[in-house]
Specification:
Blueprint lengths: L19 E4 L2 E5 L5 E5 L2 H17 L8
Antiparallel strand pairs: 1-2, 2-3
Protein name: DUF6316 domain-containing protein
Pfam families: DUF6316
Organism: Marinobacter guineae
Length: 67
């Protein structure tokens, strides 16, 4: 579990769980917005998929970024 504050957060750190989960033998990641992506063959591939997703989100203009 992540116990560090994120940019802009104040007060106690809210509960956070892993972004990664496994169903059967397939791996997925979830976003803060509740979007699940997958399946991936391994957790490592799901982690790579999340990194790619976050990279694309950062390229979006500010008004189109997911919040």
């Amino acid at each position: 579990m992540d116990t560090q504050c994120r940019t802009g957060e104040q007060g106690p750190v809210p509960f956070r769980s892993s972004r990664f989960f496994c169903v059967g033998s397939k791996w997925y990641f979830t976003t803060r917005e509740g979007f699940d992506s997958g399946p991936f063959a391994s957790r490592e591939r799901a982690e790579t998929g999340l990194k790619r997703f976050l990279h694309v989100v950062r390229l979006l203009p500010e008004e189109q970024q997911l919040h």
